[in-house]
Structures
1.
Amino acid sequence: MSLELETTKSEDFVSTDEISLLVIILDTNPGQRLLRENPQTLTQCVDSIIAFGNSHLMQKSQNKLAIMACHSKTSEFIYPGASKTLDIRQIDGQYEVFTLVERTIKTNLHKIIATENTILSNESLLAGALSMALCYIHRIQRNKPPGCKLNSRILVVTGSGDSAFQYMSYMNVFFTAQKQNVVIDVCALDQHLSLLQQGCDITNGLYLKIPQLQGLLQYLLWVFLPEPPIRPKLVLPPPVKVDYRAACFCHREMVDIGYVCSVCLSIFCKFSPICTTCHTVFKMPGPLAVKSKKKKMKL
Amino acid sequence: MADNGLSSSQQVNNVLIQPSNLECKNLYDYLTTRPQNVLERLYNHPTICLAVYRELPELARQYVIRILFVEQPVPQAVVASWGHQAFSKEHVYVSKVLSNLFVWQEASIPGGLPGWILSTTFKRNLKIALLGGGKPWSMSSALDPDNKARDITFLDAYSAERWECVLHYMVGSQQQEGISADAVRILLHAGLMKRDEDDGSPVITRQGFQFLLLDRQAQVWHFVLQYLDTVEQRGLDLAECLTFLFQLSFSTLGKDYSTEGMNQRLLVFLQHLREFGLVYQRKRKAGRFYPTRLALNITSSQSKGVHVLEDVPKGYIVVETNYRVYAYTDSNLQVALLGLFTDLLYRFPNVVVGILTRDSIRQALRGGITAEQIIGYLTQHAHSQMLQNESNHALPPTVVDQIKLWELERNRLVYSDGVLYSQFLSQADFNVLREYAQSSGYLIWSNKEKRTMVVNKSGHDDVKKFWKRYSKGN
Amino acid sequence: MVDEEDAKEYRWETGYEKTWEAIKEDDEGFLEASVTDIIQRAKRKRQAQKLPNTKLGMMRHLYLLLDCSDSMSNQDLKPTRLYCTLKLLELFIEEFFDQNPISQLGVIIMQNKRADKISELTGNPRKHIKAITTLNRTSLIGEPSLQNGLNVALKSLKLLPSHASREVLVIIGSLTTCDPTDINTTIDALKVEGVRCSIIGLAAEVHICKQLAAETNGTYSVILDDSHYKDLLFQHIEPPPAAVCLDSSLIKMGFPHQMVTEGTDEPLTMCMCHVDSVEEGSKLTTGGYYCPQCCSKYCELPVECRVCGLTLVSAPHLARSYHHLFPAPSFKETDYNNQSLICYSCQKSFTDLDKHVYQCPKCERTFCIDCDIFIHDVLHTCPGCATNPAILQSNSD
């Protein structure tokens, strides 16, 4: 009897048998504060990412993995990588696919770092890397055999900050991801990332700023390994309230009340007669009272 | 009983209820039937740990990975708190699976709380598979590049040919060569074929037909399980064979592996696998072998509807809403299989046209094939054009429903085991007992006039007890 | 549609689009490659038509004028013209608000010589879809009156501020219109007010529709079949070029944020949007968006503050529209001769099958055709430029 019960139960709990594609974007920009202060950190991050990526592959035999390095001047796929696959023979008890992942990543990353001439910028071009990842996902989705379902998601692991100057690219990426049903997860190592947090909110991803770098792998495995379909079954960090205020185009400051150009939708914090973005000349606004009122508000 | 004026009779009609269907076990079912010490021994191999891990339910995999790096036992309450309240049933189920497989064991934590701890062997070897360390797998010795390396297309063609040889033999296509007595023995052992009463030649059984309708992966897995049953009689070591099988299943297609360091028993095993097309070897003593697609991911057969991202064998069947079936194939085997449940109308060099009719389906159902299997077969081999039309239904829903209805037509009677209560002395007695049986959900049927009732078998004891109590009280 | 003035022959005599001539068999005698090529070419052509830096009417106010006359029961579209239209309109409305989040839409039906407004000009897609779905049950009777319909639309579009883009989209199945007076006066009035009228005809070309579209700078097209219908309809999702008389101005907008102070629960409050609605009633809730000017709460954005009249939006709403204004640069098509081994963005390795590759004029990266289409249709950001700090820097300056 109990045996019968069990079989019926297992029918109910059939896990989602869908293939999952995970694209990890690792920020390797040497300009970020973490790496400037202690270059060793990179090794630790890469090791954690490799172990995490392999854990993802370990979940299901058909799971797919791609890893990108977002460097200061370029973004590149370091796994599977453009060059042909290495010929790997096992040296220890590790599953040979995992060994291949590890070797490929290390070789390709080494190449990137070696060719890099050091112009330090402390902001990584994550939006660009994300857009590449979306193109990659789009290709895989396009080429999959008919009738097979593939869930895709992107995990960004970064220690650098995000500023408004990539704002438009970020927004394009987020809305594209939302349309394509790609979940964007973000693991912030160092600074709080308000723009990427918006991306997580838009695409229903998870955002986590890890309290300490030591336990990176453990955080990754706990929070980011579960696939979006089973996330509701687990207790994970609650979504944070996201600040959706806009940054004005003139000073890149957050504004509560702004002026929006009716032609190009640029946001300004003060009234100006000419739009700096599209060079439209505006009609003068109505009564002066509006202006003074606004000043009062700002105080 | 008789002294109460109550008689009960049992009906046993088990035979009638279920036509013996092909029983497909997955890895979990297979492993749970093994004793703990065998499992412990199996867990000594990283490959098996990896395979077992992948077969776990999704939630269980998350639990295992979370405590993979934890050395102390984790309180059960803590583990339970990882899952959401609403899914607590699933949590209980998952915990049971993990305990059944001895992946984790109960352990008490200082302070007396019950906790879970991963089996040390399992933990160690899963870590090795994931992160490295330990000894290399037995088939990974270095090899010189093969001067006659085989590519994937060749391997696919080879394995398909070998496997179809077995299937052909089963449907009795006259192609007798290329199949060994050993393979026949396994088919007989698995009950897929049986000796004909007259001349002793093997003929296909009902289960055999059902086997043919499974998808390729499931066929291989079922066949291998049957093979493993007989493995010890052949003087092979079960753990060794399983380990090797999973190593194969985790190997890379199109890559050659070395036979160096394999003992005699494993080499025999390898030759068996070679016969069924799971591995390719140019010569018996070649020193290297290529795993084929049949051997890869051998356990993932249970995940229905999942296609491998890489090129899968192309589907060839188109089903139209007017019940016409077009099969773009020239293989006799595939035509024969289709003929099991369709009326074939025309046959051309590369296409067969048939029609699904009530008679053809019923004939198949009488033969012991279920509607689910027919639909499964058609879906499995649906032409890619069919998959593109509607993302969720490969087959026209009308056809699917109709096939199911045709099956239901045959099952108008539902059999259930029961115990008959009759010859009640008074209507009141009858009413009381009927009331009781009904309220506890045991009642199957009752007739007031004749004062008879049938309760189901599991409720019999309970009802009997109640009756005894009741009649004593009176 | 070919203009009568400059066409030298009748429509039926004009060089028929000889689509079959473009199709060539490949080496193995298959047509597929050639057909996909034509499709992709068509896609690229549409891209090329988009000119950057044209002034667009971003704050759109669009009235859908829907024919609900007898002629809509015709079954040339399956199952009927009306049913097919309603299904497409549902998709259209959702996509319209997805792409034009700060725009407004209204629906007017023309039936039995009358015009009825079934949903007012608002920015709430759900309201419109609800109104549209109820149309399933209307009885299709009489003739439509184009003039009455246009007048109803004009009456409410007239009142809008001068920076708003005013549009009417007519979907008409009838070949006749039954008007009370001269329709030309209405067309003149529309012209004066700068209302752009576009028409999609479901039957055949009608002179008055063509004239209406020509006079008001709209487009007029007649559908071939249902997929063409969808294409035509969805072309109206892109914001049109701004009308000449459109004033530009700076509009004051509020960007509400949720009131959260770390560690404390939000107070229970009522939202303004449901405060006087009979159906749902206002409930006390914690979350919500607060008008930065008067602190009244709303549960959804974008919305116009009922108390102080400020338009409340969130930054992503505006950002959703930016790509219309700052599209990714058009890529140059070049023949493939081993410029690059792989497509920069999707990592596809080029083979001899790829006859053309596409190059971004700014960052000079090479892309495959699929990425080219994906980047321009969906993503709107060139991955090459976005990963190049120098170009990004120069863009933002």
Note: The first strand of chain C starts at residue 60 and ends at 67.
2.
Amino acid sequence: MNTSTAAIPKLTIKVVFLGESAVGKSSIVLRFVSDDFTESREPTIGAAFLTKRTTRDGNTIKFEIWDTAGQERFAPLAPMYYRNAQAAVVVFDITNEHSFHKAEDWVKELHEKAGNDIVIALVANKMDLLNVQGTILDEAVNEEEVDSFCQREGLLYFKASAKTGENIHEIFQTVGEKIPYSKQSPRRGSDHDLTITDDQRIDLQSTTVEGTKETGGCNC
Amino acid sequence: MTSIEDLISSPPLLLHSSLSQLRYLILSEGLPISEDKQQQRTRCYVWTVLSQTSMEASTQRYLSLLKLGQPSTTIYQKIKNDTSRTFQTDPNFRNRVSEDALIRCLSCFAWQTEQRRQNPRFSHIPVSTYVQGMNVLLAPLLYSCPSEPMAYQLFTKLCYEIIPTYLTKNLNGAQNGAKLLDIALRIIDPKLSKFLSDNLLTAEIYGMPSILTLSSCNKPLDQVIKLWDFMFAYGFHMNILFVVAFLVKMRSKVFKSDSPVNLLRQFPDFDADEIIRLGVGFIAKIPTQIYDLMVDHLTDPDIYIP
């Protein structure tokens, strides 16, 4: 077991992004990581990984973000990313009711399979579209329904827009505050858990992993 | 006229030997990348000949599928969700291929797939009506073919016959591809393979996009087209070895990086000739049994990978 590097308390938080295709997961991550936005992002295939450092009370917090693909065919890969995550951000598109129901499903799956400690934030993205005057959105999500869902499930809830940047930093800030320093060492679980330790190593605790941990030793 | 044009301009005397000759010409001379319409036409003909795709009545068939209109709302929504985001950052692509063309082809494919489902002959591998990734596979075809029906015909060949296991609802085929990528890398570059697995980076994490899209998610698109020239000639299983080549090309950067996972998120711009040269060189190192699995995993969902 390698739970090394425990000497310096620096908080590393692993966050996984989940949600229906095209709700703006990658855009939220991009806004947070590089304060950028582009209308035409290509759909994520599999998952993307990004990191961002921020500070809390003078301490460094490192976010390690797994941005997963939304379409259902990639759902079998999702457990590999959310197991051992300290936080999950479930995103839906405020103008698309179907995407909210998908979000409900993700929350349910997280409660069942990701363990009780995981912090879950629900994010209604694309709020900027609601603020356009005179637009009538037939498929817009009923916000009362969202509120009662969040209360029932004990979720953090944010109304955000990756496009305008509204509330994006608040998502990560609040999630960061919810995670105590003591929880930084990843929980060890079943096979195929994916964690990244402090020195940026992904630890996929899997039965297929073989050999020792040291690198080097030229084989070429 | 180039020797390739010369060869495909008349019917072959002996199919097999003419095909081998054409394959060899692709390897030795290659097709030029060009904006020229005639060149585009040649490329499409070559792909058609190599994959033995019949273009007979292709326009008629395409038109009759188009007449069916939009597929069901769920499918149509999924398609639209992705077409508006397909290669939008590539100005060359946007100039040549409209979003409407992508939507039309994918809609026709959804209809044809539903029709095929009624036929028990095709039921052994249930190719999906639409799944994410199809848009990225269709893009190079629309980009390279002079007409939409021809691109569509090649697309159906690719999906139904060449890589059906990659297009089922679950990801079994692509997951098998990832396993084979892990194995191939271990054989070809044990040091890099060990470094990645010590960092617990498996092919399932970094290789999925390139596997599932036959490398068409990598840039630039004109170099993707050249990789496809080669794969139409010698088989799309070569894609696994090309991904190994991508990795080997960037190995020194990977070793130095304090975050290999970030580095492997998007492969750097590549030169197809270099990737092909490397990939072909790897074949000799791959045991026959593994090589056969590479060939089979594209069409057989039930293979066992040791």
Note: Strands of chain A lie at 11-19, 47-56, 59-68, 87-93, 119-125, 156-159, 193-196, 202-205.
3.
Amino acid sequence: MDRQAICITNILDDYALLSPLRYRNNYLKIGIVTFGLLMGVSSTSPITPILIALSMFLATVLFGAIPVRFYLKLLSAPAVFVLLSVVVIAFFFGTGGELFGFDILGYRFSINTGGLNMALLVLARTLSGMTCLFFLALTTPMVELFSVLKTMKLPDSFIEISMMMYRYIFVFLEVAWSIRYAQNVRLGYRDWWTSLRSLAMLCTTLFLRSWEQGEKIFVSMSSRCYDGKLVFFEERRPIRINEMMLTCLYVAAITLVWYSTRDFVFV
Amino acid sequence: MHIFEGFLPGPWWQIWFAISIPVIMYGMYKLNNIVKEHRELVPLLALAGAFIFVLSSLKMPSVTGSSSHPTGTGMAAILFGPAITAVLGTIVLLYQALFLAHGGLTTLGANVFSMAIAGPVVAYVIYKAGMKANINFYVVVFLAATLANWVTYVVTSFELALAFPAEVGGVMASFKAFALVFATTQVPLAIMEGALTALIFKYVVQVKSDALVELKVIKDSTLRKLKGTMS
């Protein structure tokens, strides 16, 4: 049993910390991702999002040195939700000629061209959005993003809480993992009812642990002159010329495709 | 349930941001006030947020064999109230998008509304009403957590239906379709989360009940009654 057995998936932050792209300019990376997200979600044909998804996939795998198998496994995580919703959209949305249909209990269910187009478009958009998000998540650890959040002028208490939360997520995951392990070797997840009881005990311990830890950490931080602000060092990382050129090329290509395929329909 | 990145088109993701942002601002305002008076609460709130994150990443044993995760928002709303839960929930959702690739950034507004606002508000209202009506504490907790989880799915179905209305029958028809797919499959999981939350509260009352009194979750008199029935 590893950490995956209790968590949803791998923590992407682990990969971001080791990424070769970690020490590149944060604003450039965020800019690329924001551009991809907005272009993907505002496109009217599936071609632009697929192109964005392809570029982001290549950028993450080639420049970010992420194993392809792992990347594809990550992409399959939203599959159930996306496929279910896409099927609903295909059946209920749009007009046009009927492509495929059947009867259930006197109701006619059918997919028409409009619905199929919409479903494909939504599928492509989700794909492009997820790959953009993966690019950010797999190359930029949260520690780097805090300085960006600070420049966004969010309230101090908000950032403060986010930073401390970030730190303690990993502490509690370790605690949860070891408790789960201990329960598991004592047959705590033998059947359904035992699992429910064990899980409730685990959560209670976590809650109490976080309560006690919260009191302790305030004492220890106050004794080190904590005055409500955590200040940390921000490294300056100028954008390199080849990065800038590649980004401009990417932006120009996507904008061109976005403009020329805006009336494109698939079927 | 998270709506994934890129799923919501055109005006809808902006609209959900426009609805969620004022609520979050109000939450932050309340948070700032509390923090100004009680500085020692900052670490505590941060750890509460971390707790929600870890809680929502634990696998629940489920009836069908497939695994699923509690939302944790029902419990957080009972403990900390809906305004603070909304702010903590927003940070949790942001982290889930960036660490676990669950949810997304353009869909963050919609996800915040369904998971960090609608669910906690429902849980809180049910909890307060139930306590006032003098129903058993654990039954109230069970109901609040179950409905908070389930309402999240209903609201998500509604968000999807608004963005993709059906050609025949409009929003209502596609709402029925999305609700059929998501909200009905969620019922057993919602009940699971309710049972889990009630059990957690039972253990907390046994082990560290003064924490609950300090958070003003239950009154001293109710607590004594609960402990009295147990021993």
Note: Chain B touches chain A through 75 residues (CB under 8 Å).
